[in-house]
Automatic annotation (TrEMBL):
Lineage of the organism: Eukaryota, Fungi, Dikarya, Ascomycota, Saccharomycotina
Region called Disordered, residue ranges: 559-578
Location of this chain's protein in the cell: Membrane
Chief site of localization: membrane
GO terms for cellular component: membrane
Pfam families assigned: AA_permease
Location of the Amino acid permease/ SLC12A domain: 56-526
Protein name: Amino acid permease/ SLC12A domain-containing protein
Protein topology in the membrane: Multi-pass membrane protein
PANTHER family attached to this UniProt entry: AMINO ACID PERMEASE, GENERAL AMINO ACID PERMEASE AGP2
UniProt keyword list: Amino-acid transport, Membrane, Transmembrane, Transmembrane helix, Transport
A single MF term (Gene Ontology): amino acid transmembrane transporter activity
Membrane-spanning intervals of the chain: 59-78, 90-113, 165-187, 193-216, 290-308, 347-366, 387-409, 421-444, 467-493, 499-518
Family: Belongs to the amino acid-polyamine-organocation (APC) superfamily. YAT (TC 2.A.3.10) family.
């Protein structure tokens, strides 16, 4: 093997990186490097590039995937469960989400590459789980693109509906394509400002709640926590009848199910890992920001909604029953109208458009990077691993954006019905992904413990493991079956609703078993923890961070060489793609 090339402005890499076939470090002419280290082995081609800065990642980690659900759909949970149930349901669901997030953080911060937790499922568990996890997550991200596109259309309907519904669809897809085709730095900039708008919207609504509850409104009504005392725990019977106890429980359950759809963990942040500058320095901070998202944004919004609007409010009831578009179903806007506050509802509705657009943009990014990572691992055609000189996986992006065409369904069907179908598919896929994350973590933990003497220390160390992983598996696994329970009431049975609630469960199980026992004919065995090799992928991260004189997780004093990595799995050439 040849020695690594000299780094720009640096000496040769330390000895423990010398086994790398070759390293091509590119840097911009500016004083601050923009295009940074990428390992290229003999057969490598263009790859994604590390251009996302710390400020991009921190803002995206807080609000990057927060869409209209937090400001609009949350009203449905309030209507079904009441103010106290809403806050309690979201608070309880945030516990397993935090457990899942710390599992994700430990894995991703250790190996910050493209599609990290998906590729770790392949590396630490078996190929079958890697296939199942990758396709499930790609579907999850892709189907949320048309969901947010449909959301934008329903938001516009708040003002008027005498226009061709295909117009906003086409405009959004074109904008997503333009942003995605540019270097990832422009995606980071776009999301930085869009995320900032969402944070400003959330803070503005919190401030509005605080001021008006103390009497700062045209009616001078000091309503305080009136609605928390009015109907804190509302009874809800999906089939229209039942005991008081079952009504209270199902009201609470409706809020938890809504939380399962609304609350996102750290899996979206992890998709940035392969394109972040100094990932082992930046990513641990980003995952800690998820706690801020869970407490300040999600729980704060639940608290405010319960303060502003009664679950028995006639306008809220009518909005839910009639599936009113956009801000028309938002508890915030309903409260503004009751308090005779004008103009502000239109401002909120306009802000909701930016929130939905931002979420769709984030899902387009995650979908294309997931397909790119699948191509690197051989689970998708290799063409999807090809990138432009700017580091954009253009073919993966094009295929992922085709999912946006599903939003055309709204042209022939009620938008609310289409949204409901997509919500059910998304919720099931997301819950299955949570289970996969925790299972992967348990295997990763076993591999790390078996090889800890030769591996760098963990940049992020989660607490009380493996109990958080077990908590995530049990809670998310149980919710997979609970989230569509209403379909089993005799009066509510619908084959269509059953399929949209549980179809992904059957598909994923079939995908895992089919790949393991039919495609691989039972030869796909669980990985031996002592044979799992992280070094080929860690080398890119080491070389990149060494270029920036960040050596916290590089053992510069070690004289031991890493093993020869020219071949892997029977002599196949290893690419340097990450």
């Amino acid at each position: 093997m040849t020695n690594p090339q000299k780094l720009i402005g640096q000496d040769l890499l330390p000895k423990q990186l010398s086994w790398v076939e070759s390293v091509n470090i590119e840097a911009s002419e500016s004083s601050e490097a923009e295009n940074v280290g990428v390992i290229r082995f003999e057969r490598s081609t263009r790859h994604v590039q590390r251009k996302l800065r710390n400020r991009h990642v921190q803002l995206i980690s807080i609000s990057g995937v927060i869409g209209t659900a937090l400001f609009v759909s949350i009203g449905k949970a309030l209507y079904h469960g009441g103010a106290a149930n809403l806050l309690l349901g979201f608070a309880i669901w945030c516990i397993p989400i935090m457990c899942i997030t710390v599992c994700t953080a430990e894995m991703v911060c250790f190996l910050p590459i493209s599609s990290p937790f998906l590729r770790l499922a392949h590396m630490c568990v078996d190929d079958s789980l890697g296939v199942m996890a990758s396709w499930n997550f790609w579907f999850l991200e892709s189907v949320q693109i048309p969901f947010e596109i449909v959301s934008v259309n329903t938001i516009i309907h708040y003002w008027r509906d005498d226009y061709n519904a295909a117009i906003p669809l086409v405009v959004q897809l074109v904008l997503y394509g333009l942003i995605s085709l540019c270097t990832v730095r422009y995606y980071g900039e776009a999301e930085f400002w869009l995320a900032s708008f969402k944070i400003v919207l959330a803070i503005g609504l919190y401030f509005f709640t605080f001021v008006t509850m103390l009497g700062g409104n045209p009616r001078h009504d000091r309503y305080g926590f009136r609605y928390y005392g009015e109907v804190p725990f509302k009874k809800y019977w999906p089939n229209g009848h039942g005991s008081d106890a079952s009504g209270h429980f199902q009201g609470f359950l409706a809020c938890v199910i809504q939380a399962a759809f609304t609350v996102a963990g750290g899996e979206y942040v992890s998709m940035l890992a392969g394109e972040v500058i100094l990932p082992r320095k930046v990513m641990p901070r980003a995952f800690k920001q998820v706690f801020v998202r869970l407490t300040v944004l999600f729980l704060g919004s639940c608290l405010c909604v319960g303060i502003l609007c009664s679950p028995n409010d006639p306008d809220l009831t009518a909005a839910i029953d009639e599936s009113r578009p956009g801000a028309g179903s938002s508890p915030y806007v309903i409260a503004m109208k009751h308090l005779h506050i004008h103009v502000l509802p239109d401002i909120v509705n306009a802000a909701l458009i930016t929130a939905a657009f931002s979420s769709g943009n984030a899902y387009t990014y995650c979908s294309s990077r997931t397909l790119y990572g699948m191509a690197l691992d051989g689970y998708a055609p290799k063409i999807f691993a090809r990138c432009t000189p700017q580091g954009t996986p253009v073919f993966a992006m094009a295929v992922s954006m085709c999912w946006g065409l599903l939003s055309l369904l709204q042209l022939n069907d009620n938008s609310a019905v289409v949204l409901n179908w997509l919500i059910n598919l998304i919720t099931t896929s997301q819950l299955i992904n949570f289970v996969i994350l925790c299972v992967t973590y348990l295997f990763f933990r076993r591999v790390y413990k078996a090889n800890r003497h030769s591996l760098p220390r963990l940049p992020f160390k989660s607490w009380w493991q493996p109990w958080p992983a077990y908590t995530g598996i049990i809670c998310a696994g149980a919710m997979v079956f609970i989230q569509g329970y209403t379909v089993f009431f005799a009066s509510l049975w619908s084959t269509k609703q059953f399929l949209f609630s549980y179809l992904m469960l059957f598909i994923d199980i079939g995908l895992y078993l089919g790949y393991k026992f039919i495609w691989r004919r039972g030869k796909d065995k669980f990985r031996n923890p002592t044979e799992v090799d992280f070094f080929p992928l860690l080398a890119e991260v080491d070389a990149h961070e060494y270029h920036f004189n960040y050596t916290k997780y590089i053992d510069l004093d070690s004289s031991s060489d890493r093993p020869d990595q020219n071949t892997q799995d029977g002599g196949e050439s290893v690419t340097g793609a990450v």
